[in-house]
Amino acid sequence: MSKNLNLRYDIINQIIDSILNELLISPLPSQSALADLYNVSRTTIRHATQYLEEKGIIEYRHNIAYIRRLPTLEDKCLYIHTKKSHHNHYERIENYFKSAIQKKHIKPGDEFSELALAKNANVDIFTVREYLIQFSRFKLITALARGRWKLIEFTPHYADKLFELREMLECHALNCFMNLPKSDVRWNEMKILLQEHRALRDRIVENYMDFSILDHRLHRLILSAAENPFIDDFLELLSVIFHFHYQWDNSDLITRNILAVEEHLALLVKIISRNDLGAITELKRHLQTAKKTLLNSIKT
């Protein structure tokens, strides 16, 4: 019973947020439509709308729910797991979307719906929309009518502009990293990454797929020194494009990863030895290689 009650509280709070953010406007969709939007049963929606009606937030006229007043934070249910639940939902759609691209279930040029993603990832539709909007800002996907989206084809021109921005951001972040105090724990994290790269180099042929994890960790660690949330958003974009091989021909992935591990090792050695100029040089070399391999791998 407590699980069902928690779910009802969660949905009530999500609907309140949706009204406040004008994602839901008057009149509200039918209970059946709301159940689809939030990926819950109509019974759960019925309990939620009853609560909103009792609070005077909505009123029914001819079986249609109209917003009577804007809700306030005081109208929300006291439910300590709501934020955690939303965070879990966000992680769920993030993991599903990346997996769908990696497995080519969603390919460049494909159209897909928010509702289908919500059902497949087992989250509500507004979490899906919030997640997709960040990629639309980078022109990776475009919004179509009625909750439909399209995955845009990745062109050489886009790749060139992307790497131009990537080099500026990562070189800035690396400069910030090289100026971190010796006591900063990230220096030790960098040493651990060096050891893990050396271990992977010894077994790269058998475990070449493990490189993407180390690659993400290294670049995330470098970018963390900038302490800039906009750069963090950019890292998420890179994660979708590079680590999940968006539109890549993976036939020579082993060869590419062998080379990339060596370039990472050269970069890590320069960073740990606090060779500023050498580190920047190795980073630019690595990014140029990544740019070349991506351009060669895009299916045109």
Automatic annotation (TrEMBL):
Classification via SUPFAM superfamilies: GntR ligand-binding domain-like (SSF48008), Winged helix' DNA-binding domain (SSF46785)
Keywords of the record: DNA-binding, Transcription, Transcription regulation
Molecular function via GO: DNA binding; DNA-binding transcription factor activity
Domain GntR C-terminal: 161-289
UniProt domain HTH gntR-type: residue ranges: 15-68, 93-151
Pfam families: FCD, GntR
Annotated protein name in UniProt: GntR family transcriptional regulator
Lineage: Bacteria, Pseudomonadati, Pseudomonadota, Gammaproteobacteria, Pasteurellales
